[in-house]
Design goal:
The complex is a heterodimer.
Chain A: H1 3-19, H2 24-31, H3 33-39, H4 41-55, H5 61-71, E1 84-85, E2 103-107, E3 116-123, E4 126-133, E5 138-141, E6 152-156, E7 163-164, H6 167-200, E8 202-203, E9 206-207, H7 212-235, H8 243-268, H9 280-292, H10 297-313
Helix pairs in contact in A: 1-2, 1-4, 3-4, 4-6, 5-6, 6-7, 6-8, 6-9, 7-8, 8-9, 8-10
Chain B: H1 9-12, H2 14-25, H3 41-58, H4 76-88, H5 95-110, H6 112-123, E1 129-132, E2 148-152, E3 155-166, E4 173-179, E5 190-196, E6 202-207, E7 216-227, E8 231-232, H7 238-271, H8 286-312, H9 322-343, H10 345-348, H11 354-365, H12 373-384
The chains are: A alpha+beta, B alpha+beta.
Chain lengths: ~325, ~400
């Protein structure tokens, strides 16, 4: 995708998110977004989710990125479509929080009782998939730091019929990329808000952004976002190692970039940044809950540490992952 | 910078080049340099010169530069592959390499005749050159430098004082950035000149770092007469040459450091006690600390791969490359701070961690040299984020 196409699509996506309201998925279909994804999945995913993050949209677009991968593993004669993904409840990394003993998890939107959930289940032998209608579970709004995210918790008995869950790794990889792009969008907008505030607000006869302590904090935010962007781009292809690893790295570093930008932005926006009136808090909160989904930056970082230690202990080399 | 040598598959086929290098580095010919570390910098430079010669004779140390400069063709990506493969084979890319990948390209571009005459000695390990930029009164503010080069007929007469020149104690030439205009002309009145250390009037004095190792030196120029044809680029073009050089420092040299640091991270993990319990009762666990360092290194490589490829494709690298430099600084500090923290008393005491202690001190300089971290942040604030000026 060249720069001109990217600009054009960015413009279209911005109006979809600005005007789409509850029907963002419908408007994307109208825009022919599926064709854009088919032609250039890397650019399409990056653009869509970055813009979603910037717009603070609560549309359940992650399901659309993940479901096709899971559906491919499900039997063709299942009655009805799979409509929503039941994501692991935060705290278990990318491993499913549902077990044979019971389902707990997160839905990105409120399901109708007859809509069907795909539930990854942590089994003794790995991950399996279960499918059941939402009506079989208790579904309640999830109180969180970000009330506007529109997420729900789901809990109930684990269905006995289960299917091959090999696709879960690919699904988690797709989700990591999408979430990384969304976190980058949220962080980017938060950084812009901080730049706008500090460039216009004057103290001691100067813009706050003219003070080195403020400038350097904003520059560090830029660097963290740039690093996450580079990892995200690498996760789509420029790798010699397994893609899931690079996608997880991108998610980890996007979450970290968001946390770093948030901390800096809240500080340099002064008391204004901590008010309900100023929009900054919405970006701070949204990124924080996105970071919690499918492995937080802290969880994934510790997993990377444990992975390279195990590699070295078995006489292996630490993967370079990115090569020229 | 592809070349006449187009029938050589290794010029165009990078995976084939990687495979060939890997096979060569598995041979006993390079065993002598595997896992070696010498306390004394001049001794180490003379030792690694032998490796430069072996790589040159095998051909693998000549890719990345055109034939006119003693190379076998290819571009800066060939160096990136060589550094990865050296590190993989347990061989640290040499001090010569770190200087070569930044100095060779500006010489080829701005002084092809000098490149043809002198780069072969550099490639083959017969000589190596220092980078004479900083001065006692011009560190972060490089454009304030005062070392003068005055034209007298066919010569420049150089007088002044350079400091923090890497490996200058053993270098045979110096890439000298000197003032040919007025002091007020700042970066417009500078010129780059290739000076021989053996020329009368040059004195080099090594500087011991806090670790006791003397990797850096200061150089005094006392009316040194240098032939005018040693000018790199035109008179007054020194800043442009330096900025062109800096792109390679941000790309190829950063790649070299990332390769070395990954090698050191592996060594650190191997050196940890098996339990690798949390470093401190309340601090981050070993896993979090090592994972964070590894992610820093992956971030740097992901960022650097784009910078390296852009240079290889003949594009220029803008102010956003300051992000690469900051990421590299975080990696340098991260690896050695993790070593210090996780090894605890084993870092502080005993002969086995002498190298860790020495390198920890050196790592403190990495966010100072080549434009301090503060300068890089200001470049991003000014030129990328376009914030109001200080």
């Amino acid at each position: 995708m060249d720069a001109e196409e990217i600009d054009l699509l960015t413009g279209s996506l911005r109006s979809v998110f600005a005007e789409g309201g509850a029907d963002v998925p419908g408007q994307l279909r109208e825009l022919g977004w599926d064709d854009v994804v088919a032609a250039d999945p890397a650019s399409a995913t990056t653009l869509l989710f970055t813009e979603k993050g910037r717009a603070l949209s609560a549309a359940a677009l992650l399901d659309d990125a993940v479901l096709p991968l899971l559906r491919a593993e499900l039997p063709a004669d299942l009655p009805g479509e799979a409509d929503l993904v039941c994501y692991p409840y935060p705290g278990s990394g990318t491993r499913p929080s549902a077990t044979p003993l019971g389902v707990t998890g997160i839905l990105l939107r409120r399901p109708e009782p007859d809509e069907r959930l795909v539930i990854p289940v942590a089994d003794a032998g790995g991950v399996s998939l279960a499918v059941a209608t939402a009506g079989a579970f208790a579904v309640t709004p999830l109180p969180s730091l970000d009330g506007s995210a529109g997420w729900y918790t789901v809990s109930g008995p684990t269905p006995t019929a289960r299917y091959d869950g090999n696709a879960w790794t690919a699904a988690a990889t797709a989700a990591h990329r999408a979430l990384a792009a969304e976190l980058i969008g949220v962080a980017e907008r938060a950084l812009e808000l901080a730049i706008e505030h500090t460039s216009s607000r004057r103290q001691f006869n100067a813009s706050i952004a003219a003070f080195q302590a403020v400038r350097h904090r904003l520059a560090d935010g830029y660097v963290a976002i740039a690093a996450a962007r580079a990892l995200l781009a690498a996760s789509f292809g420029d790798v010699s190692g397994p893609e899931p690893v690079v996608a997880a790295a991108a998610k980890a570093r996007a979450g970290r970039a968001h946390a770093l930008v948030s901390a800096g932005a809240v500080q340099v926006c002064g008391a204004m940044g901590a008010t309900l009136e100023h929009p900054l808090h919405r970006y701070v909160n949204r990124g924080a809950v996105l970071d919690g989904l499918l492995g937080s930056s802290a969880e994934l970082t510790a997993e990377f540490g444990s992975m390279i230690r195990a590699t070295v202990a078995s006489g292996g080399r630490i993967p370079l992952l990115v090569e020229v | 910078m592809t070349d006449v040598n187009a029938d050589d598959r290794l010029v165009t086929d990078l995976p084939a080049f990687r495979a060939a290098v890997r096979e060569f580095l598995a041979s006993p010919a390079v065993d002598k340099w595997r896992g070696t570390y010498l306390d004394d910098d001049p001794e180490e430079m003379r030792f690694t010169a032998g490796l430069m010669r072996v790589l040159y004779d095998a051909g693998f140390g000549r890719y990345g530069l055109p034939a006119m400069a003693g190379g076998l063709g290819g571009d800066v990506r060939h160096w990136a592959v060589l550094f990865d493969e050296l590190a993989r084979a347990g061989i640290t890319p040499t001090g010569q390499h770190s200087l070569l990948v930044t100095l060779a390209y500006p010489l080829v571009k701005f002084a092809p005749r000098l490149a043809a005459a002198y780069l072969p000695e550099f490639l083959s390990g017969d000589g190596w050159w220092g980078q004479g930029f900083s001065e006692p009164e011009a560190g972060s503010d490089l454009a304030a430098l005062r070392c003068r080069a005055v034209r007298h007929g066919d010569e420049y007469v150089i007088s002044g004082h350079k400091i923090w020149t890497s490996h200058a104690e053993t270098a045979n030439r110096i890439f000298l950035l000197a003032r040919t205009g007025t002091t007020e002309s700042r970066h417009r009145g500078l010129s780059m000149i290739l000076v021989d250390v053996a020329m009368p009037g040059v004195t080099v004095r090594p500087i011991k770092l806090a670790s006791g190792r003397s990797e850096l030196a200061e150089c005094f120029f006392d009316d040194v007469r240098v032939p005018a044809d040693r000018l790199i680029g035109n008179e007054g073009q020194g800043w442009a040459v330096a900025m062109y050089l800096l792109q390679y420092e941000r790309a190829a040299w950063a790649w070299l450091r990332a390769a070395v640091l990954l090698q050191r991270l592996r060594a650190l993990i191997g050196f940890l006690p098996d339990s690798a319990a949390p470093a401190q009762a309340s601090g981050p666990t070993a896993d979090e600390m090592l994972g964070s360092v590894y992610l820093d290194l992956l971030s740097l490589r992901a960022r650097s791969v784009d910078t390296v490829r852009r240079l290889a494709a003949g594009q220029t690298v803008g102010p956003e490359a300051s992000a690469d430099k900051l990421l590299l600084g975080a990696c340098e500090h991260g690896v050695y701070d993790a070593a210090r923290s996780l090894l605890g008393p084993r870092f502080l005491f005993g002969d086995a961690s002498r190298q860790w202690r020495e390198e920890w001190w050196y790592s403190r300089t990495t966010t100072v040299y080549g434009g301090s971290a503060e300068v890089q942040r200001s470049i991003i604030a000014d030129r990328v984020l376009k914030l109001p000026k200080e």
